[in-house]
Amino acid sequence: MTGLPLSMILTTFGVFLPPFYVTLGVSFAAVGAAVGIVRLFDVFIDPVVGMAMDQTRTPIGRYRPWLLCGAPILMFGLYKLFLPDGPVDQTYLITWLLFAYVGNSILTLGVAAWGANVAAAYHERARVYGYTQGMAVIGITVLLLLGLITHGRIQPGKADSMGSIGLIMIIAVPIAVLFTTLFTPERKLSGITKTKFSFADYAVALKRPSMLRLIAADFVLTLGAGATGPIFLYFFHDAKGFSRGVTSTLLVFYIGAGLVGAPFWSWVAQKVSKHRAVQLGCVAYAACQTVLMAIPAKLYMPTALGMFAVGFSASAFIPLVRSMVADISDEVRLDTGKDLSSVLYAMVTTTMKVGLAISVTIIFPILQFVGYDGHEGAVNTPEAIRGLEMCYLFAPIILVFLGGATLFGYGLDAKRHGEIRAQLEAREVAAAEESLVGPIGSPAAAE
Hints:
about 450 residues; Growth Hormone, Chain: A; MFS_2; 18 helices; single chain; mainly alpha
């Protein structure tokens, strides 16, 4: 349930917030630098939160306290970002982005690690993260259809609607967190070593070739698919000739494709393994992105179908990669006796954030360099629009192909994970029996 507002926030931060601050008077270069600076700090936030989360033991569970703590932090950051009460500059954007990202990191890590705890089996995890992606799609679709729902009074992408969008997300966060904490079960793990965690635990995970490949794939896939987000409104408005209102509805097709795509790729993963399914998604993404670029301007339905195809392909990436992290956490737990699931998820959430930040940090200065004007109502030269088109086409295709290539040699498939789960379950049964009868020779056993 928490994935619903988190997906709205992720989309708004990636697609609508950077252009909003350009409209408020902050330059392309300044917005790009602000996002990059905040993400640089954010790289250190996730590891610290992940280690603290893995050490948490409370009467209400490991993850509930973190969600309840992160929600108000995120809400206040959203308020300052979307409802500024005066002039804004780069410093203002950096300050409140950092505040919001702290709360967002806590909730994102908590939800991801909790999902790994709830689902234990290889294919079950693919389904669970597929359902989570489905909730994310619902949240984003509601956001993008606000223009239709409110008869144009709240329009994503318009500066005067951003305050209302911020309030909607502020209200949605506590409702979703409360629902999750009240109704989501948490499995208690047996046979876990009670030791302190440190940054050395990251080295333990990074020594595994499977985790290194997954981190590299997640980073490049995020950078590739995410490169289109910050310039989405600009591209479809100026290069494809659609109004801003129509442009937002096109994004619905991209996001909505995940409702069909996520279960489909989960099914493919059951047939060919998760990493092969991701690679197939990479090939499909590149082909569909190329076709989308070739569609003539102002043709709504062909463009909408192209967006659906691209979104369908991209929906393989996040849920399957998150599911693969959960599999690696089982492998680490078998070998070390430590549950490092939050630490491992901190790695991939960090790579995702860095990838999204780099896309803004690099592309926005390029737009400024080619002379593109991002203010509402601005008229751009053909050369500036051509530069915009090149940014939208080549970077995503090249990077997504590279992301798929990093998964060659990945060895943690369904067969290997089944062996790991069998050994873990045997260990947990033995630990449970020992806690009841005591070890051989102990007073509890003698009784």
